[in-house]
């Protein structure tokens, strides 16, 4: 499979430094004036709760975030816009001319399961350089993680039958590319989106739609055309008119070597059974059956006993199957005080209180199954002195070290590694994690604040 020589941003000519909220720049402007922009800070990404009834979340979008971070430099046109709109003053424009994130980012591995209050990402640097990244970080992680979680539930329901992304026509054109990538992290095997396949070296899938059949004078003529162009191993769409007649025609045209048929309407379980029996009777015993038609994890689970070989998923994948965001937030947890000493900070707002201090994160196990998420908060020295329990798994890895991006977390190989890592992470959770029934997070999260 061809792999891009290096990762590329899906933003294209649009600079990611402008894909942000205005108040990131107005805060920068004000803090540059009063001197607090240069205070060292630690920001944290976490969610207070999973989508209702979900048992776990899936971290996704890290590779995309690192790609965008590398390109996060306001252009001359961007700076002119900020100046012309009087969003920031001249001194801030001068500061932005040389902007490059020189901080450190660590967090959960892409593909890792997460839970309420998991410190998914921690961003360290000056207030000025970190605050600009809030919207970019949250927009990527919230969406990509939602899609990856939906994909994970779908692939679990599919029981080793491959799922393919066909959601590009059901969302924003850039979101479609992000969703294709995130679906792979969640366990999908390929995508219909060519830009995603091109950028990330993913398997591209697709043959023909109903319009292809309709434009020909007969279904037979359409099948003959497709096979002439794509070969006998192609997949023919058989529900434009009458499925039984279409299957018979498909095998007559391609012979028993026909690669596959796709069903896109009706009672998929009953139709798949009839088509399987018909294909076998016609000698096409190796012909695969793919089903589509607005599938979600529940529909896929209902097809577990049907003779289906693969699933094409669209709308429900790219919308997170009812949970299109993860409610992740980006909060300041530590900052340098007036006397040059790092101090923990926290919100005390009703129902939105935060845990002060930088964090460590571990997962403990019992009988080889995850039993608890441990979040340890405190000063840098207190965390350095902390001794985790025996067998606890450290959940944090380094992504950026003083501005230097670790490229092992970007590109095609990183996506495949994240998919494999997610499968391993999911296998370590209690089996109830894979239940589609609504319930609480499959393991609890315990937060400990160490003495300073």
TrEMBL record:
CDD domains: NAPRTase_A. Residues 18-142 form the Nicotinate phosphoribosyltransferase N-terminal domain. Pfam families: NAPRTase, NAPRTase_N. Coiled coil: none annotated. InterPro entries: Aldolase_TIM (IPR013785), N/Namide_PRibTrfase (IPR041525), NAPRTase_N (IPR040727), Nic_PRibTrfase-Fam (IPR007229), Nic_PRibTrfase_pncB (IPR006405), Nicotinate_pribotase-like_C (IPR036068). It comes from the Bacteria. The keyword Acetylation does not apply. Transmembrane segments: none annotated. Keywords: Glycosyltransferase, Ligase, Phosphoprotein, Pyridine nucleotide biosynthesis, Transferase. Pathway: Cofactor biosynthesis; NAD(+) biosynthesis; nicotinate D-ribonucleotide from nicotinate: step 1/1. Transiently phosphorylated on a His residue during the reaction cycle. Phosphorylation strongly increases the affinity for substrates and increases the rate of nicotinate D-ribonucleotide production. Dephosphorylation regenerates the low-affinity form of the enzyme, leading to product release. GO terms for molecular function: glycosyltransferase activity; nicotinate phosphoribosyltransferase activity. Residues 163-333 form the Nicotinate/nicotinamide phosphoribosyltransferase domain. This is Nicotinate phosphoribosyltransferase. It comes from Bifidobacterium pseudolongum PV8-2.
